[in-house]
Amino acid sequence: MRITRSTLSTVVAAGAAALLLAATPPGSAASPDRDSAHDAALERGRDGGAQNLGDPDYGVCRGTDPRCYHDWGNFDPAKGYKLLVFSRTAGSRHAHLGTPLGPGLNPPLKDDNVAIKAVVELGRQNGFAVDYTEDVTQLNAAGRLLSYNAVMFLSSTRDALDDPAQTALRQYIRAGGGFVGVHNAFGTEYNWPWYEGLLGNANFFDHGPNQPGTVVTVNRKDASTQGLPARWAFTDEWYNLVPYPTRVRVLAEVDEGTLPNGVRGSLGHPGHGDHHPVSWCQYYDGGKAWLTTLGHDVKSWTAEPLEGDDLFLRHLLGGVKSVLGLTPFCR
Question: Does a structural domain hold residue 298?
Fold first, then answer.
């Protein structure tokens, strides 16, 4: 058989992943928690359809196994916990982001920057610092990112990163960094396969109308789902995903049968049937990622009444705290 350079690269990548997984023997304290057949099936990305025929490994260690995490001591709890929120939009902009931010770190916020303000307030109330920016130069050095325990992409859109920032994000994750992807983080960097893998082998495809529905709490053990009701009302766009997340721990789904206007998207996607995920987590290429497609409605982020908005923010806070290292991750 003729060994091509691409074949050799694939073999090397697979071998590296295998060596990383072998670093901790099965049955050790770091072994993954497989609590039920249902949970294991969800982690494989089962949705009852043919949408999961492709499950690329992206050439990295990925999945729910904590042995895919690089604990190199880059984040010292004695220094406190810090989150960087990145919300740059290179395409359409969600109303919850409000007016585009000025250059630099922590520019003045306006009244309509409601989602960023909400995350800053979550940090103030829960013991972690929050910086925010839409200036891509603030991301373009991996060493700079290492001052943060996690980076949140908050409804960023399209090609929000230049090449140096892409490199810095990838090196940050490989060094044990944490990533939180919220709502249109799934509509970002479409043509970057590594980022698609960071999202859990998932990307935004389309959505139906913003409408009320019922969120089903699938996993009740994770920091982001503890204390949440088994079913709770919320309003969102209910993203349809291509690809569909695989080898992740699904935390919450939407019950498509509760959507009064149906789940069919603007580009014709029929939805995901019995298992339509809206939040999940995984270990990826040395780092940790917690993802949610929720958060579209401006009322999700403000004091203006919206059924379930308090549960959404509790869910998000739990995910952020787990990625920061304040609570156990991806249980």
Answer: yes
Q: Can you give the CATH number for the domain in which 319 is found?
A: 3.40.50
Q: Which of 226, 187, 206 is nearest to 267 (CA)?
A: 206
The alpha carbon of residue 155 and the mean position of all alpha carbons in its chain are separated, in whole angstroms, by: 11
Per-run averaged pLDDT (10 residues), the chain, 331 residues = 35 38 32 40 40 64 95 92 93 81 95 96 97 93 90 88 94 97 90 94 93 95 96 96 95 98 96 96 97 94 92 97 97 92
**241: number of CA atoms within 13 Å, CB side?**
32
The residue segments making up the domain with residue 309 are 57-204+240-253+278-324
Cis? peptide before 243, omega within 30° of 0: yes
In-domain check, residue 7? no
Q: Work out how many domains the chain is built from and give that number.
A: 1
For residue 268, CA distances in Å to 47, 208, 213, 238, 240 come to: 18, 9, 19, 14, 10
75 token code pair = 């984040």
Is the overall model pTM greater than 0.90, yes or no? Answer: no
